[in-house]
Amino acid sequence: MAASSRAQVLDLYRAMLRESKHFSAYNYRTYAIRRIRDAFRENKNVKDPVQIQALMNKAKRDLGIIRRQVHIGQMYSTDKLIIENQEKPRT
User: Fold this and answer.
1) 34 located within any domain
2) What whole-number distance in Å separates Cα of residue 23 and Cα of residue 20?
3) I need a surface site. Which of 24, 35, 68, 88 has the fewest CB within 10 A?
4) What is the pLDDT of residue 32?
5) Which pLDDT score is estimated for 3?
6) By residue range, what is the domain housing residue 65?
7) Is residue 88, in this structure, part of any structural domain at all?
């Protein structure tokens, strides 16, 4: 994979994770983050430039979907779950 292609993939990966962290619903947020990490790990050994480009295009479409879902989720927000309200222990 060329250096510029690698940088683009990493930028897309970071953008997807960053955007997924904005989901207001805990379950959606954790699922999206887990699914993004799994998908990128699954395809980390792909060498074919055509296949890499196809995966990049799919990830860009998915990023758009994530952004739309985050906005929709913010319009219809719900109360936080108990697991989200737990304070972290002080050290």
Assistant:
1) yes
2) 6
3) 88
4) 95
5) 66
6) 16-79
7) no
Report the C-alpha gap between 28 and 42 in whole angstroms: 21
Does the residue 60 lie in any domain? Answer: yes
- The first and second tokens of residue 36, run together, are 């993004």
Cβ pair 82, 27 in contact under 8 A: no
Q: List per-residue pLDDT tens for the chain, 91 residues long.
A: 566 688 999 999 999 999 999 998 888 899 999 999 999 999 999 999 999 999 999 999 999 999 999 999 888 877 777 777 766 666 6
* CA atoms of 74 and 89, how far apart (whole Å): 29
Domain count, the chain: 1
Tokens coding 26: 């805990």
Token pair listed for 68: 């739309």
